[in-house]
Amino acid sequence: MCRVEVYAARIPFIGAIAVHCWLVVNGRDRFEVWQKPNLKAGSRGHLHFDLLAPQQGVGNGPGWRLAAFEGDVAEQIVDRLEGAADAYPFCDRYRYWPGPNSNTFAQWALGESFRLPWRAFGRNFQVGCDDISR
Fold it and tell me: Count of CB atoms within 10 A of residue 68's CB?
């Protein structure tokens, strides 16, 4: 059975107010957007696969699980993750604020199945936003 977990970790320097979110499939495959592109073979711009260990934080303490999904919901999220290199519209763009960033990607992958917390700045960045051309 497929399982998708949503993780968050405090961001260095601004961790009191902001978190970085990512997704882990079956406890081992990590999907996320990072501020630096093409850090590893298999990356697509800012979109990275297994850049860090599945539950590893991002430099300001450990990560923690926000949610977990199994069954049909998990399968839908996995389908989206597997096609992300072609379908996610911001593989080649990254901005801390207002996005697109790691939280924009995580919310995009989750769709309506889960809403990231308010500290996940960038979760509301939308395709079609006036900022998209910058």
Answer: 14
